Amino acid sequence: MSLIRQTAGIWGPVGFVGAATVAARHQPGYSHISHHVSGLAARGERSARVMVPGFLALGISSLLMPVPDDDLARLAKIAGTTTIVAGLIQVSEPRCPQPGSDPAATASDVGHGIASVATFVLWTAMPFVARRQSEPIWYRRMNCGLLGAACAGLVAAGCTTRAESSRRGLAQRVFLGTMFAWHIATTIATTSRSPHGAVSGPRPS
What we know:
The protein has helices at about 5, 10-25, 50-65, 70-90, 105-130, 135-160, 170-190. The protein has one domain. By secondary structure, it is mainly alpha-helical. The chain is globular, with a radius of gyration of 17 Å.
């Protein structure tokens, strides 16, 4: 396994966080607490030049990252695809107009929203599927804990977004942090199974 693939679950999340940090500096008035990350990739904004590649890097890393079994591999690849779609279908404004409640929302806002929600649901399902892994034991236990945190984070992110809370950006980032921790831990657990880095494969019957 190449080093790029072996470390994909690490450089993808790190690259995304780095892109959001740099992009925010190019968008006056942007707040990590109040605004969603997607606002940094809004169409026509200078910050999008940095944030869109951040989305693409995260999506590609999900397509490449090593995972323990075939079911997780399928989830990771679908999530990688929806992440790339979310990055390519940019929101219309930095404030991320909500389809269905904001008359200013456009078709691109709808498309981005669908891709983002699909990605979040897929990410939440990953620790649920991964918790059946018996080894290493720390990984199984971690998945049980992250599953609860991910479900709570997903609900919080959804509720604060619908209510247009001034802390919706913070709620989203807490959820993202949980899921990025899963990506990094999964990479460590999977590649440590063999000296050459194990990859997903058929489970024994």
